[in-house]
């Protein structure tokens, strides 16, 4: 710590790290950095993998099962409903991909990005930006 660090005790660890050389970057800060352009590119890919309405509907149902399982787990203070919700959610999604979309789930290659994109898609459906009736009603894709 240098003299300026001791004069301002309210400085956060990240602010203090910024005043020092970049030879030893803060690994926590690096993990939390996101690139919005990369995230949007993956989400565009994710939506391309969910063109079939039956697949989208199954994903929406599966995400709903997962959220219901989470709520019930919290209410009952038991992990069992969450595990059942996750299993039901993935079963719905995989049926959608294998039988309707005829492709492999993106979660096989990018599980974390796919999980985040699935809930982004879920939110877009709830907000009316993506349709479960027909792609022509999608609003989220019209700017791309």
H/I helix tally:
7
> Could you report the average pLDDT, rounded to the nearest whole number?
84
N-to-C series of helices and strands: HHHHHHH
**What is the global morphology?**
globular
How much is the radius of gyration in Å? 21 Å
Number of strands: 0
Labels describing this entry:
144 residues; mainly alpha; 65% helix; globular
Write a concise synopsis of the structure shown.
The protein is mainly α and 144 residues long. It contains seven helices and no strands.
Can you describe what's shown?
The chain is an all-alpha fold and 144 residues long. It is built from seven helices and no strands. Helix 4 crosses helix 7 and helix 5 runs antiparallel to helix 6. The longest helix has 24 residues. The radius of gyration is 21 Å and the shape is globular. It starts with a helix and ends in an 18-residue tail after the last helix.
Write the topology of this structure.
Elements: H1 3-7, H2 13-19, H3 27-32, H4 36-48, H5 53-76, H6 80-101, H7 111-126
Helix pairs in contact: 4-7, 5-6
């Amino acid at each position: 710590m240098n003299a300026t660090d001791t004069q301002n005790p309210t400085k956060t660890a990240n602010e203090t790290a910024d005043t020092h050389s970049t030879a030893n970057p803060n690994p926590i800060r690096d993990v939390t950095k996101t690139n919005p352009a990369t995230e949007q590119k993956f989400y565009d890919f994710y939506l391309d993998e969910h063109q079939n309405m039956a697949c989208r509907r199954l994903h929406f149902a599966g995400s709903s099962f997962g959220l219901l399982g989470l709520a019930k787990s919290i209410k009952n203070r038991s992990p069992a409903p969450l595990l059942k919700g996750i299993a039901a959610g993935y079963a719905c999604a995989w049926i959608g991909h294998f039988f309707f979309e005829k492709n492999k789930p993106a979660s096989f290659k990018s599980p974390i990005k796919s999980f985040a994109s699935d809930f982004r898609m879920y939110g877009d459906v709830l907000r009316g930006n993506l349709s479960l009736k027909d792609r022509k009603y999608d609003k989220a894709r019209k700017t791309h």
